[in-house]
Amino acid sequence: MANVAEWPKATKEYVNELKLEMRRVTWPNRKQVQGTTAVVIISVFLFAAYFAVVDSILTKGVKSILEFFTR
User: Fold this and answer.
1) Structural domain boundaries enclosing 8
2) Torsion over CA of 12, 15, 19 and 20, rounded to 10 degrees?
3) CA angle, 45 as apex, 59 and 40 as ends, to 5°?
């Protein structure tokens, strides 16, 4: 029962520490966010293209192997 009675106090301490920590955060400016977003979007498309090429190569390879063994 003692633990339940301490919840309000612990919650209040947590919220106060959270507020204090959020004051210390340095937020990126708009230019930084746009730059990192562009890098992420470009990276996603490059990885997608890479995996599409690898997938097509592996698909052709597996098909060739299956055709060889099913003759």
Assistant:
1) 2-69
2) 60
3) 140
CA distances from 6 to 10, 13, 26, 30 (A): 6, 11, 33, 42
Counting the structural domains of the chain, the total is 1
Distance CA 37, CA 47 (A): 15
Give residue for tokens 């293209």. 49
Tens of pLDDT, residue by residue, the chain (71 residues): 568 878 899 899 999 999 999 999 999 999 999 999 999 999 999 999 999 999 999 999 999 999 999 98
